[in-house]
Design brief:
It is a single chain. The protein has about 325 residues and is mainly α. The chain has twelve helices and six strands. Strands 1-2 form a two-stranded antiparallel ribbon. It has a two-stranded antiparallel ribbon with strand order 3-4. Strand 5 and strand 6 (about 280-285) form a beta hairpin. The protein is elongated and about 110 Å long.
Amino acid sequence: MINDMTYLSEIVEDYKESSTPEEKEFIFQNFCEQIWRCRNKRRVYPKTIHYRVDKKIKDTDVGPMFETYARIEYLSYKAFSSQKDWCSLIRQKVNNLYSIHFDKSIIHDKEYLNLLLTPRRLYYEYLHGSNDSAVHLMNQIQASLAAAETLKETLSGRKLSLTWNDYKIVVETYFRKCFENCLAPSDSNPFGMMDEDNYYIKYFCKSLCGYVRNYKYEVSGLYVPNHNNTNYHTKSCTSCGKLYLVKSPNQRRCPACRQQVRYYSPACSKTKTCIDCNTTFEVSSKNNQSCRCPACKKIYQKERDRLRKQLYRSHAKCSSVPSAISI
């Protein structure tokens, strides 16, 4: 029977050495029960971005505004475990993968957090000598928080919808693959740089990361088995959030969204005024050199050609006269 004192290396070795499928299934089920009974539960809690408004500016026109946005909350999750046993560490990885890929209420994007930090940043800039007015500061804060809310909805839409109970079933299938595919440390790590238990813990955690990533590809219809990493890469669409295969490094949208967005506007005409006759005429929107209407342009080119020929003839006459010979 598996308990907290049993080493993970012993569990894997017993599973590998089992002679009957029933015995393997018994060991595997005890392992899964130990994982789900672990005290290291998934915990979600509100995190606060806060600051304390200085007494010197509380009575000014910006004081009440900064007081309003002195505390901004967002959801976070417990990402680390203080326990070092194999069960707590593997369960922590399971919890983190669910929070990152499937919990739509948790957003830890860097751009999103920077937008939430705008009120605190503006407050400290004001303390260090910024001369922005209260109206300008309020507009900046409201615009940043509105952009943060829009970004949160976009990033939440990119996550897959999966309940915790369904997630447990998926994870158990990946645990079974880990038991079947893992190798002994002597075969895959001949230098012995870590003990056996840490080796198996690392193997289970890294394998879960890869399996969950492949699960996202399978749900999105992008999974390619036995692919080559050099020509297989995916991104999240900046418009709809779905995963898509990347064919060029500058590609930002999936094929469906690219058909709806025009990257280049068609060439249109614009109106200009002739510098000679002051009449208006139309040219291409990309034409920045024309300054005369077609009629004046013909007259200008004809006069230019006449002056060029006249200059050429004058130079030819000068070169044909012999120079004086000094005695």
